[in-house]
């Protein structure tokens, strides 16, 4: 049986990005439907942001406590792994989406469960688990918000090994005795940090010569040092040639021919767009591809199709996807109402400018690594005339109070022609809470002379701002 329903906007994917597109479209007076084949709330809620940070929070809290004289003795001993996992389960609502569904209903958005595929311009066909087919027609726009999935390498034996991806790493009900992590990015370093602290013996295999290679080099260096100090075996310049599982043991063959054994192996080797089976071919687009969009998030060559969040490959971060979603929802509503968009206004309400100039990110390792904007290498490659200003955060009074023997580093990238910041990186305990100030400075293009008058409170870790500016001014 086939049913046909018409809405102003149809959103494919009910993660935080899709939810925000639908919410903003509804706020703009449009009717909206959202299609989801898995749990409403998406990857972030159940297999990424929330469960990973729930696993990491006690790890970081204990590490911080151990750096405070008079407190470290009170937190000796192992973490209560069962309690940590139970808390994680609570933050994922035990992988039930009732609360998210209730929220969608409360904002007046229709939910269609099933696999959604484009079947022509402004048309989405939804096939439910029971075989029921519903055709949704969009008067104004269809938004693809399907996110990404883990990309596994093409290795002999990998299918039979049943490796962990980010989903298994964040939802496991036990700490494996021996865990091999392949990769050197955010997922790899965060999960290595979490499971090492929760009782696994972690071996981290990195093909390149450093960790976190999309951040300033010192970020990866400090995180690698801390992982080794915590007991993890961190090997750079190491490739995986093959994997094999016999019973409960995984044998990993390395590029040099040597082998190692583990109970589980996690591949954190990149992401791929979940656009391979959503009907892109019916509208002249390549299945499985990243979707190229303009700053209003509209897919090039299609005046009705939007790609928001990870699917457009602009910035694979939940908060950036939600930022895009707010813009896309407002854009769709404005175009539907015939309101002229201020497309020439780089920082206007209808342009996703921050995705190219002020992207913030926090890596919740110990120490934390946080950045916003460009690295030195990126700024130079873009042709800017810049100066990198570095400061040892151990010399900040607030940092020394925060943790005995505080180890960290800060860098800001100054555009010498405009005297504004292009990028900032902090590495050290607690620096995640500093990065929004950097994001404001970069997105707001606040002149250095004006930043001089933004006085940090004493004695806080944020006093590093004053020290960076003093170093710059000389």
UniProtKB/TrEMBL annotation:
Cofactor: FAD
Domain Pyridine nucleotide-disulphide oxidoreductase dimerisation: 359-465
Keywords: FAD, Flavoprotein, NAD
Residue ranges of every copy of the FAD/NAD(P)-binding domain listed in the record: 7-318
Any Pfam family hit: Pyr_redox_dim
InterPro entries assigned to the protein according to its UniProt record, in alphabetical order: Class-I_Pyr_Nuc-Dis_Oxidored, FAD/NAD-bd_sf, FAD/NAD-binding_dom, FAD/NAD-linked_Rdtase_dimer_sf, Pyr_nuc-diS_OxRdtase, Pyr_nucl-diS_OxRdtase_dimer
Family per similarity comment: Belongs to the class-I pyridine nucleotide-disulfide oxidoreductase family.
Protein's name in the database: NAD(P)/FAD-dependent oxidoreductase
Organism whose genome encodes this protein: Streptomyces kunmingensis
